[in-house]
Design a protein that fits this description.
single chain, 247 residues, alpha/beta, 7-stranded parallel beta sheet, 8 helices
Length: 247
């Protein structure tokens, strides 16, 4: 019997590529995004992809989707919470509305998903959850005053939950991509180092799910550079960030 996965943010980008890759490996994949037409297009001709339109900011809808997926496809073996959005924001265009909107999608969207699936996986003492954050969550970055905090919150959330879930038989994987070519990154008007296509990102995510370890971070050189930023004294790091902000 085919294993069952649920991928949110599957309308395009990393989510769509991960869903396609899992389906090609024989998984039955419930694909969720707000735009039903994107899901229908992705699922066309592939019986392993099952559209489940969803707004992840609606907690009740997320719970309902989890129940419907298990009722129709079977018990979940894997959930990939990937839904997210991005909007540049700095001091000049600082906006509480922008920060709130990104937090609702990027952070609370994952929280709603975890609330819906963790009781099911913990009761069965098996299963895997992958949370897609970003290397942007390692430290604050210029123009990312709304985006980076949502990803930092996801990193902290996963670090807080992983030890307990591991003891209960549930694997929690933290996915921290660098720059991946998607409709969101296509909006960027600055050079993106180590940019990789979505299909390559999906390969690294799916391969990483099969390996031991907590974090799946890529491209490795870029991730290591930003991890180094965590170790730098504030005076040094903020001076470097200030130089980037002036470009």
């Amino acid at each position: 019997m085919s294993p069952v996965a649920w991928v949110t943010g599957a309308g395009s980008g990393i989510g769509a590529a991960v869903a396609r890759r899992l389906a090609a490996q024989g998984w039955r994949v419930a694909i969720s995004a707000r735009t039903a037409s994107d899901l229908d297009l992705l699922a066309t001709g592939d019986e392993y992809l099952v559209p489940v339109p969803l707004d992840v900011t609606d907690a009740a809808a997320v719970h309902d989707a989890a129940g419907r997926i298990e009722a129709t496809l079977g018990a979940l073996d894997l959930a990939v919470f990937n839904a997210g959005t991005h909007q540049p924001m700095g001091a000049a265009d600082f906006s509480a509305d922008t920060a709130r909107r990104l937090m609702e999608v990027n952070f609370m969207g994952v929280v709603h998903g975890l609330e819906a699936v963790l009781p099911r996986l913990r009761a069965r003492r098996r299963g895997t959850v992958a949370v897609v954050a970003s290397v942007a969550g390692y430290r604050g970055l210029p123009s990312a005053a709304a985006y980076a905090p949502t990803k930092a919150a996801l990193i902290s959330l996963c670090e807080s939950l992983e030890p307990e879930l591991r003891r209960e038989g549930v694997a929690l994987k933290l996915v921290n991509p660098g720059f991946v070519r998607t409709p969101l990154t296509d909006r960027n008007d600055f050079p993106m180092p180590f940019l990789i296509p979505a299909d390559e990102a999906a390969r690294r995510v799916v391969d990483g799910l099969r390996r031991p370890g907590f974090e799946i971070a890529f491209p490795r050189r870029f991730a290591y550079l930003l991890k180094l930023g965590r170790l730098l004294p504030n005076a040094v790091y903020l001076n470097l960030a200030g130089r980037l902000a002036k470009r």
